[in-house]
Design brief:
The chain has helices at residues 33-39, 65-72, 176-188, and strands at 13-17, 22-27, 46-48, 74-79, 87-93, 97-104, 113-117, 120-123, 128-132, 140-147, 150-156, 161-168. By secondary structure, it is mainly β. The strands form 2 sheets. It has a 9-stranded antiparallel β-sheet, sandwiched between helices. The chain has a 3-stranded antiparallel β-sheet with strand order 1-2-3, with no helix packed on it. A hairpin with a 7-residue loop joins strand 4 (74-79) and strand 5.
Length: 190
């Protein structure tokens, strides 16, 4: 059963048992209870656990989506041939939102500009994140592997697969334009 809280608090992480072989795990700290109800369980993909470990809920040490969100929080850098200096940036907030500002190259009389790409994300399993442009859309699955200060992400879609290797950015590696774009986005989208 999906647990709901009317008061804001820490990220929600709920396991919904389906049968002895599978369960739904749902975690999204930014969505309000009415939106969580819309997403679960229809929009959340099943995660399989070993049968011998299945009870009413898997052990808490198996997977903690809130801990993964906390570990992802911060700004990450990655190689990007589209950027003038060859480096792109992605910021994960522990509120369930990711922020990136992609360079759209100049085209004829149009000069280059930055497009905001700021999807919501859900930590669905120890190996899968779901990115959603709108909180209630189906989203796109990404596999991930987090090892210390390195994060690998792979977009798995019907039409293609794309991978990124990201490294946690130090404060002096994050350019001023990223801070400015991030602040401007937050001012317009509280």
């Amino acid at each position: 059963m999906l647990s709901r809280s009317a008061t804001p608090g820490p990220p929600v992480s709920t396991v919904l048992p389906l049968n002895r072989k599978s369960a739904f795990v749902f975690s999204h700290p930014e969505l309000n209870p009415s939106r969580r109800a819309k997403l679960a369980p229809a929009k959340v993909k099943p995660i399989l656990f070993a049968q011998e470990n299945m009870g009413a809920e898997p052990p808490a040490t198996e997977f903690d989506p809130a801990a993964v969100s906390a570990a992802l929080a911060g700004t990450w850098r990655y190689d990007s041939p589209d950027e003038p200096d060859g480096v792109g940036f992605l910021r994960f907030a522990d509120t369930g939102r990711a922020y990136s500002f992609l360079l759209v190259p100049s085209n004829g009389p149009h000069r280059a500009w930055r497009a905001s790409l700021c999807p919501w994300y859900i930590v669905a399993s120890p190996t899968q994140l779901w990115f959603h442009i709108k909180p209630d859309d189906e989203g796109a699955p990404h596999t991930y592997r987090l090892e210390g200060e390195t994060l690998s992400l792979t977009l798995m879609s019907v039409s293609h697969e794309r991978s990124w290797l990201l490294h946690r950015a130090s404060a002096d590696e994050i350019p001023e334009w990223f801070h400015q774009r991030f602040a401007a986005f937050l001012a317009k989208n509280p």
